[in-house]
Amino acid sequence: VRGLLNPDGPARVAGGDIAIMDINAAQLAFGKEGRLDRIDVSFLPGEKLDTMKRRLQAVLPAGYAVDTPAGRTRQVEILLGRFRKSMGLVSFMALFVGMYLIYNAVSIAVVQRRREIGILRALGAGRMQIAGLFLTETLVLAVIASLLGVGLGLLFAKASIGVVAQSVTDLYLKTSVTDIAFSWWSAALDVAIGVLASLAAALLPSRNSARISPVAAIRAVPYAEEGVSLGKPIMIATGSLLLLSLAILAAFEAAPSGTWLKSLGVIFAAILTLLVGISLSTPLLLKWLVPRTHGPLASCFGAAGRLSGLNLQKNIARNGVAVAAILCSIALFVSSANAVHSIRQSVFDWIDSIVRADILVSSGHPLTTGGSALPMPGAMQAEIATVPGVLSVESFRKGYVTYDGRKVLLEIFDVARRLAYCPAMIVKGSRQDMLRLSGRDNVVVNEGFAARHRIGPGDTIVLPTPAGLVRFGVTAIVVSYSSDSGIIWMDLATYRRHWQDHLVDNFEVRVKPNAKIATVRQAILDRFGRQRKLFVLPAAEFRSEIRKVLDRSFVLTNAVNILTLVIAGLGIIVTLLASVLERTREIGILRSVGMLRGQVSAVILIESALIGAVGGVLGAVVGILLGWLELEGIFRLDFGGSIGYHLHSPAMAGAVVL
Predict the structure, then answer these.
(1) DSSP at 569
(2) CA geometry: angle at 52 spanning 48 and 58, to 5°?
(3) CB distance 363 to 533 below 8 Å
(4) Cα(573)–Cα(607) distance, integer angstroms
(5) Residues 272, 277, 280, 283: is their CA dihedral positive or negative?
(6) Residue spans of beta strands (DSSP E) within 415-547
(7) How far is CA 213 from its chain centroid?
(8) Neighbour-count burial of 651, counting CB atoms closer than 10 A to its CB (0-12 exposed, 13-18 middle, 19+ buried)
(9) Going by C-beta distance under 8 Å and a sequence separation of 6 or more, which residues neighbour residue 520?
(10) 10, 67, 76, 104: which has the fewest Cβ within 10 Å?
(11) How far apart are CA 439 and CA 412, in angstroms?
């Protein structure tokens, strides 16, 4: 070691795990004589970038990629953009649930100040002035709350920056993040979103406040919004939004890949119209359901049960909003749980189909992100095979090639040998088609690559090799989640013929039936570990590491889901508080005729349980659909791969109980 770099600037690349070495010494030390990964070019003053790119491309052999630092940065931006999209969708759902809380908060203000509204109207205040009063109050409170929200968000960001950095490192590229990047423009936009969402949520109750007549306000007539929420226009809007959501989904499914209809924006529109449509339908559902609960509630809870059902029926609109808030939060909880469970299950099914070895041998951890471990000589395969207890050893090599301007992962192994004991997950084609890779200029591609480039079995692709461009035939399409940029499988003999490369990244070792994995692993370490500092990892430990990576990647999503449930719970509090304030005289009469404090409390608790039960069951049903949309709209669009949809029954049952 001849020197140390300050831990900033270029030295922070790859999370700070960087060493600089003379290129000639590195070529000799690592067996890469005459080989280069990249050539950096500087221009003379006055030369233009586009002109120089054309000149360089003209003198290079076909297949070499000429790119700029900005172009390489765009690839990183694409990767991180996918992470932001998934978090953005969850954040939108939390904001959507919060709008119900604002709606109920304004509604309770209207309930509390009905007499005041009546007096103002009697003194000559116009309807627009009354509505403007509540909207102005909402605006002031929304600005204050949004500013506080931005500040609290910064605290959350600082607290979770380590989790975010770890998720990015695990899934995309190795990074080291020590502080957040604050933007005043972004903060202003967030405040604006909070204010606009608040005003939109307050619009309907403010409009309803203007409809209160002076006589109705001064008289002790219960305030109700049924005329608005149960009217014919709302029914038409509900049906129209639900039909529109189905139409958008049908168009998305029918659209070919790469078109604007096959985009996250279309999925977002489908989710938004679905949630709004179902939310508008909750008062209608309660109007039909609540009267049918009177008998069972009375038989189970007596007078308290009977009164709770009647109270819910008094203001269907406000209770419907509380149900909608619970519905959306539970739907988000269930959809995330189902999506996470589906991804985990599908990834493990895929790993089980391709990793049938008992031990993995490499010079770096198999889950290293952002770079590859130093390769090992292919001759080690025969040496490892002589270790007592070893049944077979298979070589695995990986690299990247440029196809259509994108870096694509190239995975190389002995296809015939692998298929003898691995049940590959084939989407199109057959095992016989895959065997046509052995020693031939054929390849297999994954779903993402096939969808992005519209390639199927029988087509051909042209790949750059050290000897020039070579045309390869595509024999099959398989499931593989190794990379989101596209994956190509190639036979080991074909790769070595074109690349003249006999190095190996991993050796996959299978142990004899009567041998112990731990014993064989230790024997490999004793023979090669000290000399080469190898990772000799049991496959079971490798799977366990993948499970930990997946769990870490969903920590933030789970945190936002819990926050959304808290917001929905606050919505129930506000709804029932409004109900209690509205029934102060009624509760006083009930107490005067002998109803106990516990019985009064039981009425409110039963109302809360009914709201939660209806919202929970509906949310679980809607969450099943949203989970499927999440996989279709995010995972399939970004990775191009199919994910089997698996329902997580414990999470769904727990959501309803919550």
Answers:
(1) H
(2) 155
(3) yes
(4) 11
(5) negative
(6) 426-428, 442-446, 460-465, 468-478, 487-491, 503-504, 506-511, 535-538
(7) 48
(8) middle
(9) 358, 359, 387, 388, 389, 390, 509, 511
(10) 10
(11) 12
Instruction: Report the amino acid identity of residue 142.
Output: A
Angle between helices 555-582 and 584-592 (to 10 degrees): 70
| Residue 644, CA distances (Å) to 339, 561, 620 in order | 10, 23, 19
> Using an 8 Å Cβ cutoff, are 602 and 301 in contact?
yes
Query: Quick one: tokens of 314?
Result: 């008094």
The CA-atom distances, in angstroms, between 318 and each of 210, 282, 462, 499, 604 are 17, 10, 63, 70, 15
In the numeric block, which tokens belong to residue 219?
A: 């008289």
Q: Nearest to residue 332, comparing CAs of 9, 573, 615?
A: 615
> H or E segment at 493?
helix 492-499
**Tens digits of residue pLDDT in 171-224:** 666 666 767 888 899 899 999 999 999 999 899 888 888 887 777 666 655 555
Query: Which residue do the tokens 């269930």 mark?
Result: 334
Report the SS3 class of residue 377: strand
Distance CA 480, CA 468 (A): 27
Distance CA 238, CA 272 (A): 13
Tokens of 372: 């590859």
Residue of 287, 327, 362 whose CA lies nearest to 623? 327
Query: Would you say 217 and 118 are in contact if contact means Cβ atoms under 8 Å apart?
Result: yes
Q: How far apart are CA 359 and CA 518, in angstroms?
A: 9
578 — alpha (psi -120 to 50), left (phi > 0) or beta?
alpha
Q: Would the CA dihedral through 326, 327, 332, 337 be positive or negative?
A: positive
Note the helical H segments in 355-414: 380-385
Buried b (16+ CB within 10 A) or exposed e, 534-543: bbbbbbeebe
Residue 203: name the closest of 131, 146, 154, 141 by CA. 131
Supply 473's token pair: 């035939």
> What integer pLDDT is reported at residue 402 of this predicted model?
84
In whole angstroms, give the CA distance from residue 243 to residue 251.
12
- 608 φ, ψ to 5°? -60, -45
Q: How far apart are CA 338 and CA 343, in angstroms?
A: 9
Q: Cα-flanking dihedrals φ and ψ of residue 117, to 5°?
A: -60, -45
SS3 label, residue 501 = coil
CA atoms of 630 and 342, how far apart (whole Å): 11
Q: State residue 471 phi and psi, 5-degree precision.
A: -90, 130
DSSP helix/strand/coil, 346? helix
For residue range 321-370, list pLDDT tens digits in order. 778 888 888 888 888 888 888 888 888 888 888 888 899 998 877 666 55
**DSSP 8-state assignment for residue 30:** T
Q: Are 616 and 326 in contact (CB under 8 A)?
A: yes
Query: How many Å apart are CA 302 and CA 283, to the nearest integer?
Result: 25
Q: Are strands 390-403 and 468-478 parallel, antiparallel or unpaired?
A: unpaired
At 657 the pLDDT is 83
> What average pLDDT does range 405-429 have in this prediction?
87
Interatomic CA distance for residues 348 and 351, integer angstroms: 5
